[in-house]
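Lab notebook, bench 4. Still working through the backlog of constructs that have no structural model yet. Next entry is a single chain of 459 residues. Request: give me the structure tokens for it.
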Amino acid sequence: MRKIILLVATTMVAVSLSGVSAPAVATPDHYVPKAGPAFNNPYGKQPAVRRLISQVNRTIDSVPRGGKIRISAWNVRSANITNALIRAHNRNVSVQVVMDRANWNPNNPNTDAARLAGALKVGNKKRSRSDKSFVRRCIGSCRGEHGIPHSKFFLFNKVRVKKNKTVKTVRWVTMFGSYNATELGATIQWNDLYTIKNEEERYKSFLGVFNEMVKDKPVKNPVVTYDDGVTSTGFYPYTGKGISGDPVMDVLNAVACKGASNKTGTTRIRIAQTAMYGDRGLALARKLAQMRRQGCDIRLVYAMFGNEVLQILRAARVPLTHLAYDNNGDGLYDRYVHMKSMAISGVINGDPRAKITWNGSANWTSVALASDEVLGMIRKRGVTNRYMQWIDYMFTHRPAIWGPEHPGNNGNAPAGRTPMWAMDTYEARAAAQDRYHAQVAARAKERGVDPYALIKEEN
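Model written out:
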């Protein structure tokens, strides 16, 4: 494993939802996830809604006796995942989980995490120290002095698969992205998970960070990266010797908006980001606004941006979709984008054919730089195309409940006046979103709730 500064720009199917108990030892599944990205869609049918939690559960159920599972998640709150992990532990798989103490403590009970921790203690005395199962809770960032334990990754040292009656073992399965080990992460959020298989050194880089997280002590130089020239994966806190600046800004500074080797000659940028606010958010918003004015083709899907950030982006007419809505009309946004991804196709570091994808667990806030986070920079054409297509889908498939895309009178304007639908589409789109979100704010005020409460709790 190489330790380098993260300057990437220069370079068994799920059980019932209400299930509480798990069978002592289940018949193992024979499944391994496909390499590359996977996305869930809370607007879709059940398979699409639960795609990621099903992927995680089936992989857990496919780890054979003697295998190892390591999970870092900001929160663990799922009967399904708890059941799968208990099944694994009961068939002598070593299960270790790290999460945030803020999501399980006397003031914030967590039935699933408590049940998992209790079950993982059974039989541990007979296991070696490295093979014991447990749940650890970090107080603040596990490897830093501030922040939170916000990284989201799943490690499996081996998975047993069956194909055409032949059973084989796939090694070093690593998944990372925006998905927490929760039911809400599966059902109310748009999330991603990126899977890498059969790469032992990358798996070891994740495992080394996990083992440091278990200790819950600050690390002197917590930035760790493994880069094979195609895929770079790394970890925050973004601090330590030789660390400066902002890694996302480094990526954006390497982009030129014109000269791309596509039909339009324009660099395309697609962003799906939960949160952007504070000083860091403002700096990144100004950069995106500048790039928009320079001609970059940008689409941005978001859940919770600061008002000043939005003012900057709107002034530059950056195309935005506020992908957060109140599904049950109670004044709380309960469907929203939770991804933290950016896909760029165009001119990067002078290469007019460059395609890169930035993904992982980190919001575009100052808190993220101080927190445990996992990041990926993937330089693969097919991967970038898939992320761009998915973000385009989220950008254009707005909920019908929002009302018409361009509010107006369907062309029945008074003589001599331009109907609303024929006016500037950017302003009309913004007006449509503002009108809907004003309705949510009114419902929230009536009930005395924060409309963004779920987003803040499940970030």
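Notes after review: Residues 1-20, 407-423 have pLDDT under 50 and may be disordered. The chain has two domains: 36-236, 247-457. Flag for follow-up if needed.
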